[in-house]
Amino acid sequence: MAERSTIPTIPNAEWNETEAIDHIVEKVTILLDKTDLFVVDNPVGVKSRVDKTIPLLKIQQSNDVLLLGIWGMGGIGKTTIAKAIYKEICRNFRDRSFLANIRERWEHIDGKVSLQEQLLLDILKTTTEMPNIDSGKNTIKDMLCNKRVLLVLDDVDSLDQLNALCGSREWFGSGTRIIITTKDKRILGANGVDKVYMMETMDDSESIELFSWHAFKQDRPRDDFLKISKEIVHYSGGLPLALTVLGSYLFGNGIADWMCVLEKIKIIPKDEVQRKLKVSYDGLNDDTEKDIFLDIACFFIGMDRNDVTQILNGCGLFANIGISVLVERSLLTVDDKNTLGMHDLLRDMGREIIREKSPRDPEDRSRLWFQEDVLNVLFEKTGTKAVEGLALKLPITSSKCFSAESFEKMERLRLLQLAGVQLDGDFEYLSRKLRWLCWKGFPLPFIPSNFYQRNLVSIELENSKMIFVWKETQRLAKLKILNLSHSHYLMHTPDFSYLPNLEKLVLKDCPMLTEVSHTIGDLGEILLIDLEDCVSLRSLPRSIYKLKSLKTLILSGCIMIDKLEEDIEQMESLTTLLADNTALTRVPFSIVRSKSIVYISLCGHEGFSRDVFPSIIKSWMSPTNNLPSYFQTSTIMSSHVPLDVPRSSSQELSSISKYLPSIRSLWVKCSSDLQLFWMPYMPQILKNWNQLQLKFHSFSLAHFIVNIVGLSNVILGSLILDKYSMRGGCVLPGDSYPNWLSFNCDGSSVIFNAPQVEEHNLKSLMCIASSTADNITPDGLKNVLVKNYTKATIQIYKSETLASFKDEEKQNLVSSVEPGNKVEVVVVFGDGFIAKETTIYLIYEESVGKKLELNRESDSNIIAVGVDENECSVKSICTQEEPTEGFNQNKMKKKKEEKKKKKN
């Protein structure tokens, strides 16, 4: 359907300019604010119903507050039509909200106020916490009374819900439109809606089309299935849900299976939709799939799919494949937040299957969920071994107390969900087969030691009164999920070494928690750690950075945490890091080296890493940033010019040799970090050798160069990648090597366009930064960043690995810089170092076919200085001569004389 333009002409020609601009901006904003509310995969019959409904809203004709009710039986498509209407007209309203599944959410402990809070969040774009429902009513009235709102209230089944969310028309501004979907027409009459649209079942044409999309993945049946398709559609009664479920169930089956299904539904009364839907349940492959369906119908609707999968797998139900089958058969849905959903009719059908097996004796049913039945069983202590799951959800403020002995005979109890319940007596009565314990408002200071927990897969004790978790810790090898959120008295985390397979740890909003046990580093299988709003937590144990499996770390709201260690890069699986509203003032530099992080929210930077990392790096460069200044930047870029640097003659090299044994011991100690040595400046180094000995206290790469800088005012070697480099040394061009291009600027950042050099290929890249010695600290060189703006890539290299690249890594860097690319190279130093000038050298070699003819009798083109455990050695790389053992002055002098004779 084509989208409508809704920018009207300015109604009053006498408006001033400001009002006119504001009016236009508002309307354009509405148009640009696209809503991606998903309606349905196959919108058969949706457009015709939307076209009938929208005129009832009188959007352009009336400024009154108007209420529209959409009424019909379950599964007829009320929510689908409401979504389609909302998506069609939402751009006419700047303020809007779609509140889905109100009936189901209302039953949750905090469901009432959470709906009010969502309404205000959707419209005001800010979070408003409600202490109670009456306060929420007043706030909605006060905050929205002047706003023109589009509001959809989906699946309302009581007047209390309407009174809490739209008590009267005076709560909203003129022009407001409110759409209410419900199965109970009396609610609409009592609330005085202006119009009621009664949902119609699908006609034969629409029914056959919708059924065909699910049964054949096309808009009409196959010819050989046409007759039987029409018969099955006839029995669906035009109900979209039934058509979808039956079509999905029959998809891919043969004609004989279709005939069998048809025979089944013929004996089911036409008006009993639930029994028609049961055909899909009966057609499930085995008992495990049926058990999964029944467990979800009774206990797990609205829960995270991954959590439910873990719990049901612990029950031996193979939930990974089972849940997928239920989704394929349209018996279950999974939304974009990975939450499990089930249509009311399907849920009720599943629960009816359980009830029918023992209609008069609830204690003999496999699952108990109906509050009255559960209360009777617990009070009368009539539970039996037939009970596999039990849920009793009272208000969290309730103090209803039962005897633990009521569970004595429930030997097969796998699933236990409680809220607002207390148990007196020995916890040993609880089943040893328990896999899921969900107890909101757990009333004890710790979990009793006589409670057998070794088979538990998930422990969820939200809003508990726990001070610590276990007094005597049991080894819980099967435990995958531990959720103690909103435990406001919790002061200590457990010893995690007893939970070897834990995958999800949630300690959200535990305000008295001051320390996380160092044993958290033992969680080798952990995937998620959520410490949000642990306001007393001051730091994380260093061991947490050893977690190789962790994917999500949430620290938002930990207002006392002021530091993340550089070790965070060791968390090689970390994809999501959330640390808003903390005391952190700087982003760890190592974070941008992470190859795994996808989403980050930290120190004001939020978004996908590919978008955020450049701004993080830029913040480090900004002199106004409150982070430590790693960079001094410059916007000046020079043209490339021929390199002219001083070079050492053979005579100088010869004179240097006698000093090499004196510095050999120093150099050997540095060899793991020192992968470079600049020969042209050796005379200056040796000339001031006594001074160097006094200064040389550190053997790091950066500090060694620092001492050279004290003499030569130059730092060399932040990055040299050369296929000729050898361990313990670096390669430098000899006198006959002309293929150098340089770029330089003030500060630590150089931006340049890589040039094309005819018949030459880029071989290596060298970076030199200069400064005065007074500015240098022992921390020295930290990292080098190579940013390719043309290719939108960033490469980061540590100082200790810059000269120890594998061939593949070297090739990746050099090949990433191509002629015409705009590139920036940034040198990163420790605190206190201020770069004065930075120069980038691009070193080229002749391409294949144009190699230089090397003269073995002439001076070497390339000199490499290397250090090993035995001797300092020099060799001619290009001529592949074997290194001599030490410097033999006589041999060098003799060669020089022979060379002169030949020239003469």
Automatic annotation (TrEMBL):
Region of interest: Disordered: 885-904
Keyword terms: Leucine-rich repeat, Membrane, Repeat, Transmembrane, Transmembrane helix
One Pfam family hit: WHD_ROQ1
GO biological process, one term: defense response
GO terms, molecular function: ADP binding
Domain NB-ARC: 60-218
Keyword Hydrolase: no
Annotated InterPro entries: Apaf_helical, Disease_R_plants, LRR_dom_sf, NB-ARC, P-loop_NTPase, WH_DNA-bd_sf, WHD_ROQ1-like
Disease resistance protein Roq1-like winged-helix domain ranges (all copies): 288-358
Gene3D superfamilies: Helical domain of apoptotic protease-activating factors, P-loop containing nucleotide triphosphate hydrolases, Ribonuclease Inhibitor
Membrane-crossing residue ranges in chain numbering: 701-721
Domain of life: Eukaryota
SUPFAM superfamilies to which the protein is assigned, alphabetical: L domain-like (SSF52058), P-loop containing nucleoside triphosphate hydrolases (SSF52540), Winged helix' DNA-binding domain (SSF46785)
Entry protein name: TIR-NBS-LRR class disease resistance protein
